[in-house]
Each structure stands twice: as structure tokens, then as C-alpha cells.
């Protein structure tokens, strides 16, 4: 009986915490307005690495949740690396090249890829066109070189 009371209590706590999060998210989203950014007119000034430029669309990639328009110059090679948090990419122009132990992917315009945090991979830009893509993360962005 004690075990079922504990399980019921934990379940109730989880539901209560989730409800508070949903209410908070709804409050925050009701304060926001439409956000429009044209890649052709975005200011690409952040440079996390040579060959990469970013235009922050929303949030702050150095501190938390964010969305950026990111460019890889033609032939950019990020080397093998991981990210602490999940990274989601939707390609706009060119091709985001991706490789892991399962194989290679050429992520082209309109294509989507989500890379789980901690997943070792290689990425780069198409040799001719580079890549322009929308990148989004739910937490701080980082690149950790693989050992």
C-alpha cells in the first residue's frame, strides 16, 4: 500500500509540474508577435569558427534556446565533433553535408536533420555552393571536437 501511495504521489507531482510548464509556455507565447527574417537581408556577423557565419533569428545561442540562419562557406569542414544539446537543421540553399558511423547524408534545400546531443558526427558545406540553413536548439549551442 505504501508503495502505491508513493507512486501515486510521484505521478501527481509530475502532472502538476508539467501543467505549470504548459501554462508558463502559453503565457510567454501570448506575449510574442510574428517574427519574419529574410535570409537575403539578415546580418551574418557571428563567427563561431572560420568559414561559418550566423545571423541570430531569436534567442541567444551563447546562453540558451535559439534559432539562427547559418552559412558554411563552400568546402567548409567542421571535423568530427559533438554538441551538448540537440541541433535541428533545415537547409535553405546549397547542401549541409553530414557523416556519422551509419553513413553519409547530403541534406539539401528543404531537407531536415536533427542531431541528438552527444552524437559524434562530421559536418560541412557543399564544395561548390556551401550551405545556408536554419539551425535551432533548445539550449546553448556548442561544438566539442571529437577525441
Describe the structure.
The strands form 2 sheets. This protein has a 5-stranded antiparallel beta sheet, with no helix packed on it. A hairpin with a 2-residue loop joins strand 5 and strand 6. The longest helix is centred in the first third of the chain and has 29 residues, at 2-30. It is globular. The N and C termini lie far apart (50 Å). It folds into 2 domains: 1-32; 52-145, Jelly Rolls (Sandwich). The chain is of the alpha+beta class. The protein contains 1 helix and 10 strands; from the N terminus they run H-E-E-E-E-E-E-E-E-E-E. Residues 5-27 have low confidence and may be disordered.
Jot down its keywords:
alpha+beta, 5-stranded antiparallel beta sheet, 2 domains, 147 residues
What share of the residues lie within helices? 10-25%
Give the class-level CATH name of the largest domain.
Mainly Beta
Mean pLDDT: 85
Discrete helix count: 1
State the low-pLDDT regions, or none: 5-27
Number of strands: 10
Instruction: Report strand order across the widest sheet.
Output: 1-2-9-4-7
Write the CATH fold name of the largest domain.
Jelly Rolls
Order of helices and strands: HEEEEEEEEEE
Give the name of the CATH superfamily of the largest domain.
Jelly Rolls
* Whole-angstrom Rg: 19 Å
Structural class: alpha+beta
Principal-axis shape: globular
- Total individual domains: 2
Strand content: 35-45%
Distance, first to last CA: 50 Å
Biggest beta sheet attributes: 5 strands, antiparallel
Tell me which CATH architecture of the largest domain applies here. Sandwich
Amino acid at each position: 500500500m505504501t508503495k502505491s501511495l508513493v507512486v501515486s504521489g510521484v505521478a501527481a507531482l509530475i502532472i502538476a509540474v508539467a501543467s505549470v510548464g504548459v501554462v508558463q509556455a502559453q503565457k510567454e507565447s501570448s506575449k510574442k508577435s510574428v517574427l519574419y527574417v529574410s535570409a537575403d537581408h539578415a546580418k551574418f556577423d557571428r563567427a563561431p569558427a572560420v568559414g561559418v557565419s550566423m545571423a541570430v533569428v531569436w534567442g541567444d545561442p551563447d546562453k540558451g534556446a535559439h534559432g539562427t540562419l547559418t552559412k558554411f562557406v563552400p568546402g567548409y569542414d567542421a571535423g568530427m565533433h559533438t554538441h551538448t544539446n540537440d541541433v535541428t537543421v533545415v537547409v535553405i540553399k546549397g547542401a549541409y553535408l553530414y557523416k556519422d558511423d551509419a553513413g553519409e547524408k547530403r541534406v539539401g534545400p528543404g531537407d531536415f536533420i536533427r542531431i541528438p546531443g552527444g552524437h559524434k558526427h562530421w559536418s560541412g558545406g557543399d564544395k561548390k555552393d556551401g550551405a545556408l540553413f536554419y539551425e535551432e536548439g533548445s539550449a546553448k549551442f556548442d561544438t566539442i571536437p571529437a577525441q
